[in-house]
Protein backbone atom coordinates (compact mmCIF):
# COMPACT_ATOMS: atom_id res chain seq x y z
CA UNK A 1 0.00 0.00 0.00
CA UNK A 2 2.93 2.35 0.64
CA UNK A 3 4.12 2.01 -2.99
CA UNK A 4 0.65 2.96 -4.24
CA UNK A 5 0.59 6.04 -1.99
CA UNK A 6 4.01 7.15 -3.23
CA UNK A 7 2.93 6.61 -6.85
CA UNK A 8 -0.12 8.83 -6.35
CA UNK A 9 2.08 11.63 -5.02
CA UNK A 10 4.34 11.47 -8.10
CA UNK A 11 2.01 11.53 -11.06
CA UNK A 12 0.89 13.86 -13.80
CA UNK A 13 -2.52 13.55 -15.38
CA UNK A 14 -4.56 15.36 -17.98
CA UNK A 15 -5.86 15.30 -21.52
CA UNK A 16 -3.49 14.62 -24.40
CA UNK A 17 -4.20 14.00 -28.04
CA UNK A 18 -2.56 10.96 -29.60
CA UNK A 19 -1.85 10.99 -33.32
CA UNK A 20 -3.18 8.11 -35.35
CA UNK A 21 -0.40 6.30 -37.21
CA UNK A 22 -1.57 6.53 -40.80
CA UNK A 23 -3.80 9.60 -40.81
CA UNK A 24 -3.94 13.22 -39.75
CA UNK A 25 -6.47 12.42 -37.00
CA UNK A 26 -5.89 12.86 -33.28
CA UNK A 27 -7.61 10.96 -30.45
CA UNK A 28 -8.30 12.76 -27.17
CA UNK A 29 -7.39 10.64 -24.15
CA UNK A 30 -7.07 11.11 -20.41
CA UNK A 31 -3.46 10.19 -19.64
CA UNK A 32 -1.84 9.41 -16.30
CA UNK A 33 1.95 9.40 -16.05
CA UNK A 34 3.31 7.57 -13.03
CA UNK A 35 6.14 5.12 -12.31
CA UNK A 36 7.66 5.84 -15.74
CA UNK A 37 4.55 4.58 -17.52
CA UNK A 38 1.67 6.22 -19.37
CA UNK A 39 -1.84 4.92 -18.72
CA UNK A 40 -4.52 5.83 -21.29
CA UNK A 41 -8.21 6.28 -20.45
CA UNK A 42 -11.19 7.47 -22.49
CA UNK A 43 -11.99 9.97 -19.73
CA UNK A 44 -10.92 10.91 -16.22
CA UNK A 45 -13.97 9.04 -14.90
CA UNK A 46 -12.83 5.62 -16.12
CA UNK A 47 -11.61 3.12 -13.54
CA UNK A 48 -9.49 1.01 -15.86
CA UNK A 49 -7.05 2.09 -18.58
CA UNK A 50 -7.52 1.26 -22.24
CA UNK A 51 -3.78 0.66 -22.51
CA UNK A 52 -0.46 1.38 -20.87
CA UNK A 53 2.98 2.24 -22.19
CA UNK A 54 6.11 1.62 -20.06
CA UNK A 55 8.51 4.45 -20.94
CA UNK A 56 11.91 3.22 -19.77
CA UNK A 57 14.29 3.62 -22.68
CA UNK A 58 12.06 6.05 -24.57
CA UNK A 59 13.34 9.45 -25.69
CA UNK A 60 11.29 12.64 -25.62
CA UNK A 61 11.84 15.00 -28.55
CA UNK A 62 10.11 17.67 -30.56
CA UNK A 63 9.15 16.46 -34.07
CA UNK A 64 11.30 17.80 -36.90
CA UNK A 65 9.87 19.68 -39.89
CA UNK A 66 10.36 16.58 -42.07
CA UNK A 67 7.83 14.66 -39.95
CA UNK A 68 5.04 16.97 -41.20
CA UNK A 69 3.38 17.43 -37.82
CA UNK A 70 2.17 20.99 -38.26
CA UNK A 71 0.54 21.51 -34.86
CA UNK A 72 1.55 23.38 -31.72
CA UNK A 73 2.52 21.67 -28.45
CA UNK A 74 3.51 18.32 -29.99
CA UNK A 75 6.12 15.99 -28.55
CA UNK A 76 7.40 12.66 -29.77
CA UNK A 77 8.16 9.53 -27.74
CA UNK A 78 10.39 7.03 -29.49
CA UNK A 79 12.30 3.85 -28.75
CA UNK A 80 13.84 1.78 -31.56
CA UNK A 81 11.08 1.51 -34.19
CA UNK A 82 8.26 2.58 -31.84
CA UNK A 83 7.18 6.19 -32.36
CA UNK A 84 4.26 8.00 -30.72
CA UNK A 85 3.17 11.61 -31.21
CA UNK A 86 1.21 13.43 -28.54
CA UNK A 87 -0.20 16.94 -28.49
CA UNK A 88 -1.30 18.99 -25.53
CA UNK A 89 -4.06 21.56 -25.75
CA UNK A 90 -2.11 24.31 -24.00
CA UNK A 91 1.40 25.61 -23.55
CA UNK A 92 1.11 25.01 -19.80
CA UNK A 93 0.44 21.28 -20.26
CA UNK A 94 3.14 21.01 -22.92
CA UNK A 95 5.71 22.57 -20.58
CA UNK A 96 4.74 20.12 -17.82
CA UNK A 97 5.68 17.26 -20.16
CA UNK A 98 8.63 18.90 -21.88
CA UNK A 99 10.04 21.00 -19.03
CA UNK A 100 13.13 20.17 -16.97
CA UNK A 101 11.17 19.91 -13.72
CA UNK A 102 9.04 17.08 -15.06
CA UNK A 103 9.54 13.40 -14.36
CA UNK A 104 9.16 12.95 -18.15
CA UNK A 105 12.35 14.93 -18.63
CA UNK A 106 14.23 12.26 -16.70
CA UNK A 107 13.45 9.59 -19.30
CA UNK A 108 15.97 10.94 -21.80
CA UNK A 109 15.80 14.36 -23.37
CA UNK A 110 17.09 14.49 -26.93
CA UNK A 111 17.04 17.60 -29.12
CA UNK A 112 16.16 17.02 -32.78
CA UNK A 113 19.01 17.39 -35.26
CA UNK A 114 18.99 20.68 -37.17
Automatic annotation (TrEMBL):
PROSITE patterns: PH_DOMAIN. GO terms for molecular function: guanyl-nucleotide exchange factor activity. Residues 9-91 form the PH domain. InterPro entries: PH-like_dom_sf, PH_domain, RAC1-GEF. CDD domains: PH2_FARP1-like. Coiled coil: none annotated. Pfam families: PH. This is PH domain-containing protein.
